[in-house]
Amino acid sequence: MKRITIAALAGTAVLFAGAAHAQQGVDFSKVEIKTTDLGNKTYMLEGQGGNITVAVGADGIIMVDSQFAPLHDKIKAAIAKISPLPVKYLINTHYHGDHVGGNAAFHKEGATIVAHDNIRVRLAAGTTNGLTGNKNPPAEADALPTETWLVGGSKVEAGGRVAQLGHVINAHTDGDTWVYFPDANVLALGDTFTRNYPNLDWGNGGTIEGMVLANDRYLKTANDTTKIVPGHGPLATKANLQEFRDMLATVRDRVKKLYDAGKTEEEVLAAKPLADLDTKWGAAQGLGTPTTFLRNVYNSFRNHN
Ligand SMILES: [Zn+2]
Ligand SMILES: [Zn+2]
Fold this sequence. Notes:
Distance between the termini: 16 Å
Number of strands: 14
Order of helices and strands: HEEEEHEHHEHEEEEEEEHEHHHH
Shape: globular
Bound molecules: zinc ion
Oligomer: single chain
Strand order of the largest sheet: 1-2-3-4-5-6-9
Protein backbone atom coordinates (compact mmCIF):
# COMPACT_ATOMS: atom_id res chain seq x y z
CA MET A 1 0.00 0.00 0.00
CA LYS A 2 1.16 3.46 -0.86
CA ARG A 3 1.10 5.91 1.98
CA ILE A 4 0.41 9.43 0.81
CA THR A 5 2.16 12.31 2.46
CA ILE A 6 1.63 16.02 2.62
CA ALA A 7 4.73 16.46 0.49
CA ALA A 8 3.38 14.08 -2.14
CA LEU A 9 0.09 15.94 -2.17
CA ALA A 10 1.79 19.30 -2.56
CA GLY A 11 3.78 17.94 -5.47
CA THR A 12 0.76 16.68 -7.36
CA ALA A 13 -0.44 19.38 -9.68
CA VAL A 14 -3.86 18.00 -10.50
CA LEU A 15 -5.96 16.39 -7.85
CA PHE A 16 -9.64 15.68 -7.55
CA ALA A 17 -11.86 16.64 -4.69
CA GLY A 18 -15.34 15.78 -5.86
CA ALA A 19 -16.48 16.61 -2.37
CA ALA A 20 -19.32 18.82 -3.31
CA HIS A 21 -20.42 16.38 -6.02
CA ALA A 22 -23.40 17.93 -7.74
CA GLN A 23 -24.91 19.11 -4.50
CA GLN A 24 -24.37 22.84 -4.80
CA GLY A 25 -27.65 24.68 -4.76
CA VAL A 26 -29.35 22.08 -2.58
CA ASP A 27 -31.74 23.58 -0.05
CA PHE A 28 -30.78 21.52 2.99
CA SER A 29 -33.77 22.80 4.96
CA LYS A 30 -36.00 20.79 2.62
CA VAL A 31 -34.10 17.51 3.00
CA GLU A 32 -35.84 14.75 4.94
CA ILE A 33 -33.97 11.91 6.55
CA LYS A 34 -35.51 8.52 5.78
CA THR A 35 -34.72 5.64 8.13
CA THR A 36 -34.82 1.99 7.05
CA ASP A 37 -34.67 -0.79 9.67
CA LEU A 38 -32.15 -3.42 8.56
CA GLY A 39 -32.78 -5.67 11.56
CA ASN A 40 -30.77 -6.36 14.72
CA LYS A 41 -30.71 -2.67 15.75
CA THR A 42 -29.05 -1.62 12.52
CA TYR A 43 -30.42 1.13 10.25
CA MET A 44 -29.83 2.86 6.95
CA LEU A 45 -30.39 6.63 6.83
CA GLU A 46 -30.94 8.46 3.55
CA GLY A 47 -31.04 12.22 3.15
CA GLN A 48 -28.80 14.23 0.80
CA GLY A 49 -25.34 12.89 0.07
CA GLY A 50 -23.89 9.52 1.00
CA ASN A 51 -26.03 6.96 2.78
CA ILE A 52 -25.52 6.53 6.52
CA THR A 53 -25.49 3.27 8.48
CA VAL A 54 -26.27 3.23 12.21
CA ALA A 55 -25.69 0.30 14.61
CA VAL A 56 -26.94 0.57 18.17
CA GLY A 57 -24.90 -1.12 20.92
CA ALA A 58 -25.71 -1.44 24.62
CA ASP A 59 -23.84 1.76 25.57
CA GLY A 60 -23.50 3.73 22.37
CA ILE A 61 -23.90 3.97 18.62
CA ILE A 62 -21.57 3.18 15.74
CA MET A 63 -22.28 5.36 12.72
CA VAL A 64 -20.87 5.06 9.20
CA ASP A 65 -20.64 8.39 7.32
CA SER A 66 -22.38 11.66 8.17
CA GLN A 67 -23.51 13.45 4.95
CA PHE A 68 -23.24 17.25 4.69
CA ALA A 69 -22.54 19.52 7.67
CA PRO A 70 -25.86 21.45 7.45
CA LEU A 71 -27.77 18.17 7.89
CA HIS A 72 -26.26 17.39 11.29
CA ASP A 73 -29.31 18.40 13.34
CA LYS A 74 -31.69 16.43 11.14
CA ILE A 75 -29.47 13.35 11.22
CA LYS A 76 -29.10 13.67 14.98
CA ALA A 77 -32.89 13.87 15.35
CA ALA A 78 -33.35 10.79 13.14
CA ILE A 79 -30.85 8.87 15.28
CA ALA A 80 -32.59 10.03 18.48
CA LYS A 81 -35.79 8.40 17.22
CA ILE A 82 -33.88 5.11 16.96
CA SER A 83 -32.04 5.30 20.31
CA PRO A 84 -31.32 7.82 23.10
CA LEU A 85 -27.69 6.65 23.26
CA PRO A 86 -24.80 8.86 22.06
CA VAL A 87 -22.84 8.31 18.87
CA LYS A 88 -19.64 6.74 20.15
CA TYR A 89 -17.87 6.15 16.86
CA LEU A 90 -18.24 7.80 13.47
CA ILE A 91 -16.51 5.81 10.72
CA ASN A 92 -15.61 7.57 7.45
CA THR A 93 -15.77 5.47 4.25
CA HIS A 94 -13.73 8.13 2.36
CA TYR A 95 -12.91 11.83 2.48
CA HIS A 96 -15.63 13.33 0.23
CA GLY A 97 -17.71 16.09 1.78
CA ASP A 98 -21.04 14.36 1.20
CA HIS A 99 -19.80 11.61 3.56
CA VAL A 100 -17.66 13.43 6.14
CA GLY A 101 -19.48 16.78 6.34
CA GLY A 102 -20.83 15.95 9.79
CA ASN A 103 -17.45 14.96 11.26
CA ALA A 104 -16.78 18.15 13.23
CA ALA A 105 -20.26 18.47 14.74
CA PHE A 106 -20.48 14.81 15.79
CA HIS A 107 -16.92 14.95 17.12
CA LYS A 108 -17.75 18.00 19.25
CA GLU A 109 -20.60 15.97 20.74
CA GLY A 110 -18.22 13.22 21.76
CA ALA A 111 -17.91 10.86 18.81
CA THR A 112 -14.51 9.42 17.95
CA ILE A 113 -13.84 9.73 14.21
CA VAL A 114 -12.39 6.50 12.83
CA ALA A 115 -10.85 6.30 9.36
CA HIS A 116 -8.11 4.97 7.16
CA ASP A 117 -5.09 7.25 7.55
CA ASN A 118 -5.20 8.37 3.91
CA ILE A 119 -8.54 10.03 4.69
CA ARG A 120 -7.00 12.02 7.52
CA VAL A 121 -4.13 13.13 5.28
CA ARG A 122 -6.46 14.21 2.46
CA LEU A 123 -8.75 16.13 4.83
CA ALA A 124 -5.83 17.82 6.57
CA ALA A 125 -4.12 18.88 3.33
CA GLY A 126 -7.13 19.90 1.26
CA THR A 127 -7.75 18.51 -2.21
CA THR A 128 -8.27 19.51 -5.84
CA ASN A 129 -10.75 18.11 -8.35
CA GLY A 130 -8.99 16.35 -11.24
CA LEU A 131 -11.56 17.24 -13.88
CA THR A 132 -12.55 20.74 -12.82
CA GLY A 133 -9.59 21.94 -10.76
CA ASN A 134 -12.00 22.95 -7.98
CA LYS A 135 -10.30 23.07 -4.62
CA ASN A 136 -11.41 21.91 -1.18
CA PRO A 137 -9.61 23.73 1.64
CA PRO A 138 -8.04 21.81 4.53
CA ALA A 139 -10.68 20.58 7.00
CA GLU A 140 -10.98 22.11 10.47
CA ALA A 141 -9.21 20.23 13.27
CA ASP A 142 -12.44 18.88 14.77
CA ALA A 143 -13.28 17.17 11.47
CA LEU A 144 -10.07 15.14 11.35
CA PRO A 145 -10.16 11.43 12.21
CA THR A 146 -8.31 10.70 15.44
CA GLU A 147 -8.38 6.93 15.34
CA THR A 148 -6.71 5.86 12.11
CA TRP A 149 -4.99 2.82 10.69
CA LEU A 150 -2.88 2.18 7.64
CA VAL A 151 -2.34 -1.49 6.88
CA GLY A 152 -4.88 -4.31 6.84
CA GLY A 153 -8.17 -3.73 8.61
CA SER A 154 -9.47 -2.44 11.89
CA LYS A 155 -12.33 -3.05 14.30
CA VAL A 156 -14.68 -0.82 16.26
CA GLU A 157 -16.77 -2.04 19.18
CA ALA A 158 -19.61 -0.38 21.09
CA GLY A 159 -21.64 -2.19 23.71
CA GLY A 160 -21.44 -5.59 22.08
CA ARG A 161 -21.77 -4.33 18.51
CA VAL A 162 -18.78 -4.95 16.26
CA ALA A 163 -17.93 -3.13 13.03
CA GLN A 164 -15.23 -4.79 10.94
CA LEU A 165 -13.33 -2.27 8.80
CA GLY A 166 -11.47 -3.15 5.64
CA HIS A 167 -9.48 -1.05 3.17
CA VAL A 168 -9.64 -1.53 -0.58
CA ILE A 169 -6.72 -0.07 -2.49
CA ASN A 170 -7.08 2.69 -5.11
CA ALA A 171 -10.79 2.18 -5.82
CA HIS A 172 -13.09 5.23 -5.54
CA THR A 173 -10.24 7.12 -3.81
CA ASP A 174 -7.06 5.95 -2.08
CA GLY A 175 -8.64 5.80 1.38
CA ASP A 176 -11.77 3.70 0.87
CA THR A 177 -13.04 1.82 3.88
CA TRP A 178 -15.78 -0.78 3.84
CA VAL A 179 -17.64 -1.81 6.97
CA TYR A 180 -19.24 -5.13 7.89
CA PHE A 181 -21.58 -5.68 10.83
CA PRO A 182 -21.49 -9.48 11.17
CA ASP A 183 -24.32 -9.76 13.71
CA ALA A 184 -26.70 -7.95 11.35
CA ASN A 185 -25.16 -9.20 8.08
CA VAL A 186 -24.98 -5.61 6.85
CA LEU A 187 -22.30 -4.25 4.53
CA ALA A 188 -21.72 -0.48 4.22
CA LEU A 189 -19.54 0.15 1.17
CA GLY A 190 -19.30 3.91 0.67
CA ASP A 191 -18.87 5.07 -2.90
CA THR A 192 -17.01 1.93 -4.00
CA PHE A 193 -20.52 0.57 -4.62
CA THR A 194 -23.31 2.72 -6.03
CA ARG A 195 -26.48 2.05 -8.03
CA ASN A 196 -25.45 4.13 -11.09
CA TYR A 197 -22.05 4.65 -12.68
CA PRO A 198 -19.76 5.51 -9.77
CA ASN A 199 -17.67 8.61 -9.40
CA LEU A 200 -13.99 7.75 -9.82
CA ASP A 201 -11.72 10.20 -8.02
CA TRP A 202 -8.63 9.48 -10.12
CA GLY A 203 -6.89 12.66 -8.96
CA ASN A 204 -6.91 11.27 -5.42
CA GLY A 205 -5.99 7.67 -6.10
CA GLY A 206 -9.19 6.23 -7.57
CA THR A 207 -8.92 3.64 -10.40
CA ILE A 208 -11.38 1.50 -12.34
CA GLU A 209 -9.21 -1.57 -11.73
CA GLY A 210 -9.32 -0.97 -7.97
CA MET A 211 -13.11 -0.64 -8.15
CA VAL A 212 -13.39 -4.08 -9.78
CA LEU A 213 -11.08 -5.62 -7.17
CA ALA A 214 -13.00 -3.95 -4.33
CA ASN A 215 -16.27 -5.43 -5.50
CA ASP A 216 -14.62 -8.83 -5.97
CA ARG A 217 -13.64 -8.59 -2.32
CA TYR A 218 -17.17 -7.69 -1.17
CA LEU A 219 -18.65 -10.60 -3.12
CA LYS A 220 -16.58 -12.94 -0.94
CA THR A 221 -18.15 -11.54 2.25
CA ALA A 222 -21.73 -11.09 1.04
CA ASN A 223 -24.28 -13.88 0.92
CA ASP A 224 -27.84 -14.02 -0.36
CA THR A 225 -29.30 -12.42 2.77
CA THR A 226 -26.70 -9.64 3.19
CA LYS A 227 -28.18 -6.14 3.22
CA ILE A 228 -25.86 -3.82 1.33
CA VAL A 229 -25.84 -0.08 1.96
CA PRO A 230 -24.45 1.61 -1.17
CA GLY A 231 -22.71 4.99 -1.10
CA HIS A 232 -25.68 6.40 -3.01
CA GLY A 233 -29.01 4.92 -4.05
CA PRO A 234 -31.35 2.34 -2.55
CA LEU A 235 -30.47 -0.62 -0.34
CA ALA A 236 -29.03 -3.50 -2.35
CA THR A 237 -28.44 -7.25 -2.45
CA LYS A 238 -25.55 -9.48 -3.46
CA ALA A 239 -27.17 -9.86 -6.89
CA ASN A 240 -26.99 -6.07 -7.35
CA LEU A 241 -23.35 -6.14 -6.24
CA GLN A 242 -22.53 -8.86 -8.78
CA GLU A 243 -24.21 -6.90 -11.55
CA PHE A 244 -22.31 -3.73 -10.61
CA ARG A 245 -18.99 -5.61 -10.50
CA ASP A 246 -19.61 -7.16 -13.91
CA MET A 247 -20.47 -3.76 -15.39
CA LEU A 248 -17.23 -2.30 -13.96
CA ALA A 249 -15.15 -5.16 -15.39
CA THR A 250 -16.72 -4.66 -18.84
CA VAL A 251 -16.00 -0.93 -18.68
CA ARG A 252 -12.42 -1.55 -17.58
CA ASP A 253 -11.76 -3.98 -20.41
CA ARG A 254 -13.27 -1.82 -23.14
CA VAL A 255 -11.63 1.45 -22.10
CA LYS A 256 -8.25 -0.16 -21.36
CA LYS A 257 -8.19 -1.58 -24.88
CA LEU A 258 -8.64 1.90 -26.33
CA TYR A 259 -6.19 3.43 -23.88
CA ASP A 260 -3.55 0.79 -24.68
CA ALA A 261 -4.09 1.45 -28.40
CA GLY A 262 -2.97 5.03 -27.76
CA LYS A 263 -6.37 6.73 -28.16
CA THR A 264 -6.74 10.22 -26.69
CA GLU A 265 -9.52 11.10 -24.26
CA GLU A 266 -11.39 12.85 -27.08
CA GLU A 267 -11.08 9.82 -29.34
CA VAL A 268 -12.34 7.51 -26.60
CA LEU A 269 -15.33 9.79 -25.94
CA ALA A 270 -16.11 9.88 -29.67
CA ALA A 271 -15.94 6.06 -29.90
CA LYS A 272 -18.79 5.77 -27.32
CA PRO A 273 -17.52 2.44 -25.97
CA LEU A 274 -20.16 2.31 -23.20
CA ALA A 275 -23.20 3.27 -25.29
CA ASP A 276 -25.07 0.03 -24.54
CA LEU A 277 -24.52 0.46 -20.79
CA ASP A 278 -25.36 4.14 -20.48
CA THR A 279 -29.13 3.80 -20.37
CA LYS A 280 -29.07 1.43 -17.43
CA TRP A 281 -26.15 2.88 -15.48
CA GLY A 282 -25.81 6.53 -16.49
CA ALA A 283 -27.08 9.08 -13.97
CA ALA A 284 -29.05 12.09 -15.19
CA GLN A 285 -26.73 14.54 -13.46
CA GLY A 286 -23.68 14.75 -11.25
CA LEU A 287 -20.55 12.64 -11.43
CA GLY A 288 -22.24 9.48 -12.67
CA THR A 289 -23.29 10.86 -16.05
CA PRO A 290 -22.00 8.76 -18.99
CA THR A 291 -19.52 11.40 -20.21
CA THR A 292 -18.06 12.18 -16.78
CA PHE A 293 -17.77 8.51 -15.90
CA LEU A 294 -15.99 7.67 -19.16
CA ARG A 295 -13.61 10.61 -18.71
CA ASN A 296 -12.82 9.46 -15.17
CA VAL A 297 -12.21 5.86 -16.25
CA TYR A 298 -9.88 7.00 -19.04
CA ASN A 299 -7.97 9.32 -16.75
CA SER A 300 -7.64 6.61 -14.11
CA PHE A 301 -5.48 4.68 -16.61
CA ARG A 302 -3.57 7.79 -17.60
CA ASN A 303 -2.89 8.63 -13.97
CA HIS A 304 -1.62 5.18 -13.02
CA ASN A 305 0.59 4.13 -15.94
ZN1 LIG B 1 -20.63 10.17 -2.28
ZN1 LIG C 1 -17.30 9.84 -2.94
